[in-house]
Task: structure prediction
Amino acid sequence: MYIMIVNPAAGNGKAMNLFRRIQKETLYKKENCRSFLTQEPGHAERLALQVTKIHHETLKGIIVLGGDGTLHEVVNGIRHYSDTPVCFIPAGSGNDFARGLTLKKRGLKLFRSYVRNPKKKKVLLADYILNQRQKQGRRTFINSIGFGLDGLVVDAANEQKYRSWTRKFHITKLTYPFALLRSISKVKPIHFELFLDGKQINIHQAMMVTITNHSYYGGGMKIAPKAKINSKGLSILVVKPISKKKLLAMFVSVFFGLHTRMKEVEEWRASTVQISSEQPLPFQVDGQSGSCFDCSIKKAETSTTFYSD
Ligand SMILES: Nc1ncnc2c1ncn2[C@@H]1O[C@H](COP(=O)(O)OP(=O)(O)OP(=O)(O)O)[C@@H](O)[C@H]1O
Result:
């Protein structure tokens, strides 16, 4: 049996349209697929936890039909059943994880390929704990966690008014680059202490610090060109204080992965990262924004199983 978790809001209705087509497939009926539609943020996580608890033994996989936000929730919902395979059908606006996982097919073709010819890939994601002193729990991210400008951009991109505007003009693919343009005027360097694998890094100010599991970010930007999803380490990208003009130029070159040639950009590799600050740090994790004082990040020790095509 497959359980399908569908976010009807993902990709401005793209996920829902695809779900209607998948439901008509003979394979869908033959494989005894059962579906659940999410009703609000956080629902995919609760659903994933419930269905794995109940059907853990007989479940061939959880099919996630939505964007990276929905996948983030599902992966966190099944944390304690990490051998449950996840079959991700990207139908969001960014779809960076599908790029990172190097999925070639999309939509119905991907559904058919998962069910007819299941191939599995084990991936080490990363865990993070925000604000350790407040004892917030450990969570997992699929794409990236970033501090500074990164957090401001996602915050701007998620504003309801702005989302409706990008939908109206059919430019949802440009959500992140436009939000970046809006945020650049407000950005100031953040001040922090940074430890990689326990060793303090001698950089205390930056425009942004981003930690990623794979190369892609913000709807296809190649933020960490050398990062590979099957690697045992994390990529850490630090953009040191830089003029707004240069920052803009940097984000044009990000699409080609050429920004790492700039002297203000440093790329590191490590398995653990600790960042802290005396000021609130704006952050984003897999496209959700917030603010924190410290964060501890660690490459996961147990892998998550994904279907691949
Ligand atoms: N019924 C719903 N109505 C509104 N929002 C929902 C609903 N169900 C889930 N959500 C929320 O929608 C948010 C966005 O979903 P998701 O990230 O999957 O799509 P997206 O934003 O279009 O894609 P991407 O993250 O790839 O850009 C998620 O954080 C999720 O919590």
Remarks:
- The longest strand covers residues 272-285.
- The pocket of adenosine-5'-triphosphate is lined by residues 7-11, 38-41, 43, 66-70, 73, 92-95, 287 (CB under 6 Å).
